[in-house]
Amino acid sequence: MKLTRRVKEILSWYESDNPGTKANLARILMEGRLGGTGKLVILPVDQGFEHGPARSFAMNPAAYDPHYHYQLAIDAGLSAYAAPLGPLEAGAATFAGSIPLILKMNSANSLSRLKEGADQAVTASVDDALRLGCSAIGFTIYPGSDAMFGQYEEIRELSREAKSKGIATVIWSYPRGGDISKKGELALDVDAYAAHMAALLGAHIIKVKLPTADLEQDEARKIYEKHNIPRETLAERVKHITQACFNGRRIVVFSGGAAKGEDAVYEDARAIRDGGGNGSIIGRNAFQRSREDALALLDKLVRIYQNKE
Amino acid sequence: MKLTRRVKEILSWYESDNPGTKANLARILMEGRLGGTGKLVILPVDQGFEHGPARSFAMNPAAYDPHYHYQLAIDAGLSAYAAPLGPLEAGAATFAGSIPLILKMNSANSLSRLKEGADQAVTASVDDALRLGCSAIGFTIYPGSDAMFGQYEEIRELSREAKSKGIATVIWSYPRGGDISKKGELALDVDAYAAHMAALLGAHIIKVKLPTADLEQDEARKIYEKHNIPRETLAERVKHITQACFNGRRIVVFSGGAAKGEDAVYEDARAIRDGGGNGSIIGRNAFQRSREDALALLDKLVRIYQNKE
Amino acid sequence: MKLTRRVKEILSWYESDNPGTKANLARILMEGRLGGTGKLVILPVDQGFEHGPARSFAMNPAAYDPHYHYQLAIDAGLSAYAAPLGPLEAGAATFAGSIPLILKMNSANSLSRLKEGADQAVTASVDDALRLGCSAIGFTIYPGSDAMFGQYEEIRELSREAKSKGIATVIWSYPRGGDISKKGELALDVDAYAAHMAALLGAHIIKVKLPTADLEQDEARKIYEKHNIPRETLAERVKHITQACFNGRRIVVFSGGAAKGEDAVYEDARAIRDGGGNGSIIGRNAFQRSREDALALLDKLVRIYQNKE
Amino acid sequence: MKLTRRVKEILSWYESDNPGTKANLARILMEGRLGGTGKLVILPVDQGFEHGPARSFAMNPAAYDPHYHYQLAIDAGLSAYAAPLGPLEAGAATFAGSIPLILKMNSANSLSRLKEGADQAVTASVDDALRLGCSAIGFTIYPGSDAMFGQYEEIRELSREAKSKGIATVIWSYPRGGDISKKGELALDVDAYAAHMAALLGAHIIKVKLPTADLEQDEARKIYEKHNIPRETLAERVKHITQACFNGRRIVVFSGGAAKGEDAVYEDARAIRDGGGNGSIIGRNAFQRSREDALALLDKLVRIYQNKE
Amino acid sequence: MKLTRRVKEILSWYESDNPGTKANLARILMEGRLGGTGKLVILPVDQGFEHGPARSFAMNPAAYDPHYHYQLAIDAGLSAYAAPLGPLEAGAATFAGSIPLILKMNSANSLSRLKEGADQAVTASVDDALRLGCSAIGFTIYPGSDAMFGQYEEIRELSREAKSKGIATVIWSYPRGGDISKKGELALDVDAYAAHMAALLGAHIIKVKLPTADLEQDEARKIYEKHNIPRETLAERVKHITQACFNGRRIVVFSGGAAKGEDAVYEDARAIRDGGGNGSIIGRNAFQRSREDALALLDKLVRIYQNKE
Question: Measured between CA atoms, how close is A162 to chain D, in angstroms?
Answer without folding.
Answer: 10
